[in-house]
């Protein structure tokens, strides 16, 4: 049995992950944490009325009172790094979906995990289809170096571009390197019209009510085009990946960056 805590359990992803952990026979939910919660026990929330699990508003109290193997994190970009560091310092393996990590923050927690010989996972996207989209896009960029990424999300999202778009761009860059795109003379008449620039490729972020998480990677070449698209219509799409991560980190002694490394 793997003992799990969920950080950010009051949020959209935290709630979905909490339900997944409760349902999965290999997992035991030993605590949930969210500074914006008011409950003392999960059973005070009607949909969890049969689940006797402690609720923590402070992570220091959580580590004093429960023994956890895995820390699932779906919080906010501003605290994800410190939460991951905190989990490792307390011997808990992080499985992190929260976005907003800088490259140096990923390296820093990877170093700590190696020192402590603890497994972990930071996955910008836990949906299997999204991982395939990123891998297909990286492969295509070898033959189609001209590419633009458009990610589309619900309008409550805090960060732009999305973690998935950044990871996609990193994977494309690893395959094709820097490549200047578009007309070198082009001028934006409205600032931002061409989107963000990552090593020559453009990233566009759409935020609209009704959307969940969607991304398309569009390639153009001489006389042809290629479009690779992934849609998460529901947050359950991420749960196979989260469950897989929770199992796999138990036998790792380093932090993987990207679910593709565990598939
Ligand atoms: N890797 C993946 O597959 C996915 C990643 N995400 C990412 O997960 C994160 C959460 O997304 P949502 O659930 O949609 O956001 P949300 O806004 O619904 O939930 C965030 C939760 O974090 C809590 N929180 C705020 N400060 C905290 C702190 N200091 N410690 C612990 N919890 C704290 C809030 O109270 C809230 O309940 C975002 O960064 C999002 O981009 C979202 C979907 C999939
Ligand atoms: O905020 C979200 O919703 C999502 N965030 C992740 C990201 O930034 O890529 C993963 C997914 O796109 C949903």
UniProtKB/TrEMBL annotation:
GO CC entries: cytosol
Q: Which residues form the Dihydrodipicolinate reductase C-terminal domain?
A: 129-263
- GO molecular function term, any single one: NAD binding
Q: Give the Dihydrodipicolinate reductase N-terminal domain ranges.
A: 2-126
Q: In which pathway does it act?
A: Amino-acid biosynthesis; L-lysine biosynthesis via DAP pathway; (S)-tetrahydrodipicolinate from L-aspartate: step 4/4
Active site, UniProt feature: 153, 157
Keywords in UniProt for this one? Amino-acid biosynthesis, Cytoplasm, Diaminopimelate biosynthesis, Lysine biosynthesis, NAD, NADP, Oxidoreductase
Listed under catalytic activity are: (S)-2,3,4,5-tetrahydrodipicolinate + NADP(+) + H2O = (2S,4S)-4-hydroxy-2,3,4,5-tetrahydrodipicolinate + NADPH + H(+); (S)-2,3,4,5-tetrahydrodipicolinate + NAD(+) + H2O = (2S,4S)-4-hydroxy-2,3,4,5-tetrahydrodipicolinate + NADH + H(+)
- Where does the record place it? Cytoplasm
An example Gene Ontology biological process: lysine biosynthetic process via diaminopimelate
Record's InterPro entries? DapB_C, DapB_N, DapB_N_CS, DHDPR_bac, NAD(P)-bd_dom_sf
Q: Where does NADP(+) bind?
A: 40
The residues listed in the UniProt record as binding (S)-2,3,4,5-tetrahydrodipicolinate, with positions renumbered to this chain, are 154, 163-164
Keyword Mitochondrion: yes or no?
A: no
According to the UniProt entry, what is the EC number of this protein? 1.17.1.8
- Kindly list the positions annotated as binding NAD(+): 8-13, 39, 97-99, 123-126
User: What PROSITE patterns would the database entry show?
Assistant: DAPB
Record-stated family = Belongs to the DapB family.
Name the job this protein performs: Catalyzes the conversion of 4-hydroxy-tetrahydrodipicolinate (HTPA) to tetrahydrodipicolinate.
Q: How does it assemble?
A: Homotetramer.
How is this protein named in the record?
Answer: 4-hydroxy-tetrahydrodipicolinate reductase
Species in which this protein is naturally found = Carnobacterium alterfunditum
> Its encoding gene is what?
dapB
């Amino acid at each position: 049995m793997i003992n799990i805590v969920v950080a950010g359990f009051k949020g959209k992803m935290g709630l979905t992950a909490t339900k997944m952990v409760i349902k999965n026979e290999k997992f035991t939910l030993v605590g949930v944490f969210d500074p914006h919660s008011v409950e003392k026990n999960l059973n005070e929330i009607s949909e969890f009325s049969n689940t006797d699990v402690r609720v923590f508003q402070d992570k220091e109290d959580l580590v004093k009172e429960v023994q956890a193997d895995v820390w699932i994190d779906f919080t906010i970009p501003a605290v994800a790094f410190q939460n991951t560091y905190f989990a490792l310092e307390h011997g808990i393996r992080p499985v992190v979906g929260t976005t907003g990590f800088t490259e140096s923050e990923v390296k820093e927690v990877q170093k700590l995990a190696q020192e402590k010989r603890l497994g972990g996972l930071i996955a910008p996207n836990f949906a299997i289809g999204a991982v395939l989209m990123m891998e297909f896009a990286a492969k295509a960029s070898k033959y189609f170096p001209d590419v633009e990424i458009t990610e589309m999300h619900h309008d409550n999202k805090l960060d732009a571009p999305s973690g998935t778009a950044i990871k996609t761009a990193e994977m494309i860059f690893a395959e094709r390197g820097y490549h200047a795109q578009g007309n070198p003379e082009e001028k934006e008449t409205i600032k931002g019209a061409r989107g963000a620039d990552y090593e020559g490729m453009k990233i566009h972020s759409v935020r609209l009510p009704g959307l969940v998480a969607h991304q398309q990677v569009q390639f153009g070449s001489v006389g042809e085009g290629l479009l690779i698209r992934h849609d998460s219509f529901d947050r359950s799409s991420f749960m196979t990946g989260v469950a897989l991560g929770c199992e796999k980190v138990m036998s790792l002694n380093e932090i993987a960056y990207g679910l593709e490394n565990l598939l």
